[in-house]
Amino acid sequence: MKRIAHLLAGLAIVAGCQRTTGTAPPVPEPYRADIARLCDVVVQSGADQLPAGERLLAIVQWLPEHLETQETHAFLARIQPLEGEAKADALDAEARRVGLPGCALAAEWRADEPGH
């Protein structure tokens, strides 16, 4: 899964700059749906049905055609330099920000960390 994290980050095309004005604007539904797909990518791509060594390719092939917003690509670019727990925390935080209760992909990244 560590390789998945690196490849997901590599899929980001352009990093966007965001400025906050004190109040968070509502989250557009297409972006929320993209974050939901990203969090559930292992299941949605069918990778959960494959042996561990074959999952990465399925995920990498599935994501580009199923992530719809530039904002999602920008988010992936922003978290790309992060590693381990920090990257999982960032993904979980974004999932909560868009209204999801958590993120399965972040949990998998944590489970793949040494010592877990």
Provide an overview of this structure:
- By secondary structure, the protein is mainly α.
- It has one domain (1-11, 42-116).
- It is 62% helix and 0% strand.
- It has 7 helices and no strands.
- It has helices at 2-11, 29-39, 41-44, 52-66, 70-79, 84-97, 104-111.
- The longest helix is centred in the middle third of the chain and has 15 residues, at 52-66.
- The protein is globular.
- The two termini are 13 Å apart.
Quick recap:
With 116 residues, the protein is mainly α. It contains 7 helices and no strands. Helix content is 62%, strand content 0%.
What keywords describe this structure?
116 residues; 7 helices; single chain; mainly alpha
Number of DSSP helical runs: 7
User: What is the 3D shape?
Assistant: globular
Counted beta strands = 0
**Number of structurally distinct domains:** 1
What is the CA–CA distance across the termini? 13 Å
SS class: mainly alpha
Helix content: 55-70%
State Rg: 14 Å
Order of helices and strands: HHHHHHH
**In this structure, how is the largest beta sheet organized?**
none
Low-pLDDT ranges: 12-20
Mean pLDDT: 83
Query: Beta-sheet strand percentage?
Result: under 5%
